[in-house]
Known about the structure:
Layout: H1 4-8, H2 13-39, E1 53-55, E2 57-59, E3 63-65, E4 68-77, E5 80-83, E6 91-94, E7 101-102, E8 107-111, H3 114-170, H4 176-230, E9 232-234, E10 239-244, E11 259-262, E12 267-272, H5 278-281, E13 291-293, E14 299-305, E15 317-322, E16 335-341, E17 345-351, E18 361-366, E19 369-374, E20 376-383, E21 387-393, E22 402-404, E23 417-419
Parallel strand pairs: 1-23
Antiparallel strand pairs: 2-22, 3-17, 4-12, 4-16, 5-11, 6-8, 7-10, 8-9, 10-11, 12-15, 13-14, 13-16, 14-15, 17-21, 18-19, 20-21
Amino acid sequence: MKSPTRMNFLPRKPKQKQLLIALGILAGAVLTSVSIFATGPNAEPVAPVEKAWPVSVTPAEPQTLKPSFSAFGRLESNRIAHLRSDLVARIEHVAVQEGDWVNKGDLLIQLDDRESQLLVQEREAELVQHKANLASMRNQLDLEQSNAEHFVSKLEVANAKLARHQDLMTKRLIARGLLDDIRALANQATIEYRTHQQRLANLPNEIAAHEARVAKAGALLAKANLDLEKTRIRAPFAGPILAVLAATGDHSNLSMPLIEMADSQSFEVRVQIPESYAAEFSRPSLQNAVLATTEAGQQLILTRLAAKVSTGQTGMDAFFSFKQTESANTLLGRVFNLTVELPAQTDVIAVPVQSIYDNNRVYSVVNNRLVGHTVQRVGELESETDGYRILIRSDELSSGAPIVATQLPRAITGLLVDIANAGV
Length: 424
């Protein structure tokens, strides 16, 4: 039997063996790592390479071109008539409807004209009466003028007879009673002569008074005919009927509009001019020199500018009139898509829309790096060969300068680029 004390001092061989194996593995790993670091290559830093952005360019070519831009215009009329009647009468017939196109003088509304016709007949009768009175007075004047010699002769005979009897009375050859009778006859002849002279002097005044009555009667007849004409409401000009506010059987009054219509000669298109073109349109010489064309080919010309900027707008309003009246035969309020063409300008450069940054900036390429330029946008241009182009002007761009025609996400002065169409 083994002693317990001796058994506690015996070495444990399995545990020692495991420890030796672990130490051997650790030593092998350390030696392997040291050999790897000792025999590995030395790391050197890599220099960063700047990226060159591919772009296409277009040469700057200053030219004399006509700028243009697109805008929307609304058809309006600056002359709209609200037709009323000066008479209070029953409406007998309405000859038009809303939307009809009428010519100047066309009948629109017929009022009851019976009272007006009776008044015309009354005024005609009065005129005939006054004309007859005037003719009578003129005949009387002719008669009095023809009798003037008889009155003069009668007066001369009476005065001569009186002189002879006065001489006889001086010689006491006749009685005084006979002389008195002769003197009375002479006085009567004098009175008749003076009365005749007074009538001759007054007859021209009476004739003038009758002529005035004839003129007044004629004016009253003309007014009656005018009132009769007012029973027929006619178109004051050619144009469309905008509204019919009366119907057969209604009664007109002095304040009620019956018809609303627009003058075809006053049609114009209101166009809001972008703020960037406001200064260009403010030039007085520009009026009647700016043309606009609708999608249908109708041509308009600039006639005037609005006196103020409308509420909620930044640009001004311009008014264009149709070159041909028949082109305006359309509905008021219609919206047109216009191409507005400005007069030709010198030293402008046409660039594609991709060349524009921030609305007023372009980039040129100098030594493969971008150079920014602030430009003035003059307008637009639609070319059959080059398509849509933006017209710009800048003192910083010389003829032939390569302008970037590519939109870069991070374009900035100094950015390295590679011209893709350098050999084209």
